[in-house]
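Handout, page 2. Input:
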Amino acid sequence: MPDLRTRALQNRPLWAGFAFMVAVLLWQATIGVGLTAVLMRWIGGAAHVVTFLLTAVIGAYVFQRMQRWAARADADCSTDPSTGLEECERQLLVLADALPVGVIVVRGDFVHAANATAQAQFGGALANRPVRPLFAHAYDAAALAGSDNPPQGALELRRIDGSAFRAEVGARVFRLGRRGLRLVFVSDLSERDRAQAQIAHQHEELQAMARRLLCVQEDERSTLSRELHDDIGQQITAIKLGAMALQNESDPQRRAETLAEIIATTDQTVAKVRNLSLLLRPPQLDALGLEAALRWQTGVLFRNGQPRLDLAIEPLSARPPPDVELACFRIAQEALTNVLRHADARQVRLRLQPRDGVLVLDVEDDGHGFARGDTAAGLGLVTMRERAQQLGGRLDVDSAPGLGTRVHAELPLVLTG
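Output:
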């Protein structure tokens, strides 16, 4: 049953007519009587006719104005679903389209309307679709359609094509005129979940890199200790013993032989110290620059001709900053070492070129390749990627089992900050 206010709004024309009749009676009882008495003095019996005509003209004008007022009031405050309610719904959806979340208007068991964000989330138009297929679980849909306390929180929903996605869902029950509707808010959690997974993956990579750096550091220390103690230390000891033997040697021939042994041992020791120094940091990088250091490194690694190396290093107009040179050299060194250790490649190609303020390094091979997520291959890649990112550059690796590997690095030629 309509309430009293609704019935009053619907009967505005009747109220206008009633008000008009009351106004005419009041006119006739007050002003009309006095006007007739005055006219009687001037025109006699015709005064009643003139008063009646004047009352009719004024009444018609007032009645027309009251009808127009009633019509405007009906248009502004109508409860007809085809006018006022539809306008309210339209304005509601215009407002919903400006929101960054999906908004669905549910009426009964069907979707009444949805904003553009919700249609993008579910992959198509939602109007007049049943609510049940949009939820992965029937009890969530039933609670939304029939409960005074709709489900809240993270729920599993389904797109129109049947694919599932997680979303934060909130719902409110409200009335629009005599209609009972539910307003459902949907925030897609897919991007958040992907971001969290990426953060977790990067955290694992950083932990793995930290462990690897510690292991590499300990391995390098062990190698240096072994080389210094077991090899270089023994050779220095041999040199010392030979020098001591010379003090008491009177035979010229034996003296000459001992001196030759000391000289040979000294040369070997110097060569080993130089090799250790080169492993720590190649002097060519500081003295001659990146291009010469890369040529020297590739010459050492591929000196036996297997695999075949294709080297393409374009001249640089100016030397990059030292940090960029070192990072590029270490990335190339790591990539080439990985090829020799794991790829079993027949051909390797290294290319270095400047391009639009960026130093571009590519190392490609035709070896075994590896699958994405391979932990054994991933640790070295994390180290290379971190070297590039610390300078504001980037590193991409493209590989697949049986299709070889391509390491692509871009480093800035000018550092800022």
